[in-house]
Amino acid sequence: MVHKEPKRTRGRPKAYDPDQALESATRAFWTLGFSGTSVDVLSDATDMNRPSMYAAFGDKRALYLKTLARYTESAKLGIKQALDPERPLEAGLRSMFDQALKVYFSSTDGARGCYLIGTAATEAASDADIRATLHESLRGFEALFVARFEQAKKSGELPRSADAEALAMMTSAFLHSLAVRARAGDSRTKLRSLIELALKMLCG
Question: Has residue 32 been placed in a domain?
Answer without folding.
Answer: no
